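Notebook, p. 212. Picked up where the previous page left off. The plan for this session was modest: take the two constructs that came back from the sequencing core last week, fold each one, and keep the raw output in the notebook itself so nobody has to go hunting through shared drives later. Recording the first one now, exactly as returned: residue sequence, then the structure token string.
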Amino acid sequence: MSAGAPLAGIRILEVGVMLAGPYATMMLADLGAEVIKIEPPGGEISRQVSDSYFASLNRNKQSVVIDLRSDAGRQKLGELVADSHALLVNMKPSAIRRLGLTYDSLKEFNERIVCVAMTGFGLDGGDDPAFDYVIQAATGVAAMTGDPDGPPTLPGYSSADNSTGLTAALGLLAQIVSGRGGQVDVSLQDVMLSQLNYRAAAYLNDGAEPKRHPFGAHSYYVPAQLFSTAEGFLALFITHDGFWASFAREAGIEGFATMAERASRRDEVLALVSAALAGDTAVGWQNRLQPLGIPAAAVRTLPEALEAMPEVVVTAGDFRLVRSPIRIAGYTPEYRPAPTLDEHADAPAHSS
């Protein structure tokens, strides 16, 4: 562990399943926290998905197998809790309570333990299935995504799980900093509704329901969407009049100087912009617009993005992975491979 690790000396227990919980604790482990992954006999289910899947969510952790349904497992959990700062779990509420993974159940071992429960709808929200795509459907995300004349659309990655993982990590750290133990309750539903911030506010205060626009166009800013070019697609995001003035000069477009005028004459603006952009490739426009400070980028595939940004790829054991997104001056994370099952059965003493 790096001597300058921000979370050095912090021990976190994880009873994580698949993505949301393991992602949260991996972010903390990358920052130097000692994360012990408590796995059931046979291992956490994501070990069955693929080796690269498991590696992408569980680097820098330790693994201890505990049967939490047994008396011996309960005793072992209590011993770990007594010398830990936090426990994070993502399961159904009934399973969390049945296995004794709440603050009320664990405070007898450590009154200052922080217990984070990640669920679909909250600890008191019931056990309805709450997978990422289900939450996106239930919170309106899918309905506002996609072409206006097409079906609802889901993004190509687990946005609800990942967002909830980051939120849970924030809640965990906040309660540790407070110096108090207690229960932290984070749900996928609440996180996704929170992330709809200005969309939700527009409806709650102005009665404005979200509408889908072609090419993922923004509801306020024009032009701010994907555009077809002579080759490939370009993301263009004009948020203020200065951007527009610079873009319009480069594209040979006159008029529509204000944001209000562009919004009120959306179809006219988009027709002119589309015609102009058809005169060059997406990469060509990117190369022309970015030096002018205009937000624009050619649409890349994931392989193209990783090839263009090799600095984000790190090695952890036998696996190449994307590095931590948190960069702190003076600290360089170590990237250790994901643990083998029960690799740390003896549960090392606290590192502080």
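Okay, moving on. Second construct, recorded in the same format:
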Amino acid sequence: MMELRSIGESDGFTFWLAQPEDYDAVMDISDNIYGGNDYLPHRYHSWMTEPNRVVILAKREGKLVALESGLVVDEGHTVVVEGLRVCPNERGKGVARIIQRWVQQYIRQLYPSVRVLRLTRNNDSGPEKLAKFTVLGKRAILSICGKAENLDSFLSILKAKLDPEPMLTVLDEVQLRGLLLDSELGSRLQLPGDAMIVDWQPLQPIESNLEVFQRRNLTWLADRSVSPTFLSVHTPPYPVPYNGGSLRFNIDLFGTSQSLAHLALVSHLERVRGKIQGVVWIFVYMHRSLWKGMREYCESLTDVVSFRDYWEQLILERPF
């Protein structure tokens, strides 16, 4: 069984298909990644069975050194790469480049229809990491943090500031399918690179990706169910390792209406307030024109506070 998992050797490394029993070793090389806000401890086991996903490990002398994954989307034409990590004592030695090359080679064998590679990074990435890619777009990130017991007072302050006019509708599966068939959605919502980035995964808003969205158990809100000018979505809060155990909550906003962005933030927080315990890290991804107004809207006298100044999410692409 072990031999069947090995897919090749290069540069002193052996490459393997990841298995559920590799979880502890993967966590060992992931210590403090993303400042304790790493999603992989929560996602690893679902990745093992996700359709059209490849997860590859690099080992040297039997010891795990690196991991990367690729998810094939967009009717089989795009691979979204994510999850890259290298054990601390091997960083800066070119290991990332080696495993990236192997993941891409393996995906080419399994999915010859793939033509495009896409990924997301934050703006901390240096110019040398971005040089090989086309930057399709940038979104601003608002980062706030607080304890569950302070969320009610925070929401009360936010609701008191809301414009009474706007309304948002919860989209069901049929409405979402119709929305993804709307050829003008990208331009109307000003989607960066005509991609809908949900929880850091850039996918084209097309019907074939509906199954991917369904796996995520997402909640979608829009200003109207047909031809919306504003759309938002949240991923259910999930555990992250920070400080021995916290929650992360991601909200993605599409559109440029400041008042609807405020309403969307309140609406998504209200829908999960009963599921939040302890410390929650809230990340809101939005059109760059919204950031200043959203930052000012979230300023309050409560203990829910911003923990990082302006930063950006970059959507990158290159030919595969």
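Notes on construct two before I forget. The two ends are 31 Å apart (CA to CA).
Flagging for discussion at group meeting.
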